[in-house]
Amino acid sequence: MRVIIIGGGIIGSLTACFLKLRGADVTVLERGKLGQEASWAGAGILSPIHPWLYPDSFTHLINASLALYPKLHEQLLTETGIDAQWLQSGLMVPLFEDDKIHHRQHAIAWSEKFNWKLQTLDAQETLQQEPTLNPQQLSGSLLWPDVAQVRNPRLLKAVRAWMQKLGITLHEQCEVSKLIHSPDGQVCGAESTSGLSFQGDAVLLAGGSWSGQLAKSMGFSLPVQPVKGQIVLLKGEPGLVHHIIKHDDAYFVPRSDGRILVGASMEFVGFQRGNTQNIVKNLLSAMQKMTPDLQQLDIEHQWMGFRPGTPDGLPFLGAVPEKDGLWVASGHYRNGVVLAPITAELMSQQILGEKSRLEITDFSITRHLPEKSPLGFPSTSI
Question: Average per-residue pLDDT in the chain?
Answer without folding.
Answer: 93
